[in-house]
Design a protein that fits this description.
Helix content is 69%, strand content 0%. With 226 residues, the protein is mainly alpha-helical.
Length: 226
């Protein structure tokens, strides 16, 4: 591996690690409601739920948004993609989630891993930075190639929901790792598909996950913020 590859890998591992202080651990993207309604009850139903979100739902759309933001050549284009990312959110909680994570990511990254692109984009977009756009700008600003960045993004997104499922379903740690192993090919394929998808062609098909996200807003007992 070249020095550039090692550097890119190190930064992706850092930014998308559970230890990076963005607060991703407090969000479940409607999974908490799915467990409440017994739509997700064990390892197999968890895997199917996450695979649907990865291939057809919020992780898929975020990956496509990430890819388009990474390839943007002007700040105005990044701003337009960011506006699209916010408008594309199917529920108030998911919009609040992407904004909260985006703000936290930008704040920490500008302090520890600054880049001119992220600094200028932040000056333009301000507090309304969607999370996938923020990470994509950081990756692009540090000359990290798109495909490894997308693979890391998809893996991190799935891993966060696996962690939520371990607490909610509940599942054992070994079950969580089995799910991640089972979704390896889908994660890589989703990243490759997202890299080739223009936002004009972006569609999702995960209605139950979106409904659960909406219902979570008024769920009486909640451990997670979405």
């Amino acid at each position: 591996m070249t020095t550039e590859t090692n550097t890119a890998l190190y930064r992706l591992l850092t930014w998308l690690s559970p230890a990076y202080p963005v607060g991703a651990f407090s969000f479940s993207q409607g999974l908490e409601t799915a467990v409440h309604h017994k739509l997700v009850t064990d390892m197999d139903s968890t895997r199917r739920w996450l695979q649907d979100i990865l291939e057809y739902g919020s992780i898929w759309s975020d990956a496509a948004i990430f890819a388009n933001a990474h390839g943007a050549t002007t700040i105005s284009t990044i701003e337009e993609i960011n506006e699209f990312a916010l408008a594309f959110q199917p529920s108030a909680e998911l919009k609040a989630e992407t904004l909260a994570l985006g703000r936290a990511f930008v704040q920490t990254t500008l302090l520890a891993w600054p880049s001119p692109l992220l600094e200028v984009a932040n000056q333009t977009i301000g507090e309304n930075f969607a999370y996938p756009c923020a990470v994509a700008c950081a990756a692009s600003g540090h000359d990290i190639e798109l495909i490894p960045a997308l693979q890391a993004w998809c893996h991190s997104s799935v891993s966060n929901l696996v962690s939520a499922a371990i607490r909610l379903v509940p599942l054992g740690q070994s079950d969580g790792q089995k799910i991640l192993a089972a979704l390896e090919r889908q994660i890589l394929t989703t990243a490759e598909r997202a890299a080739e998808t223009h936002l004009d062609n972006l569609v999702t098909s995960s209605l139950m996950a979106e409904i659960c996200s909406m219902q979570h807003e008024t769920q009486h007992v909640r451990l997670f913020r979405s």
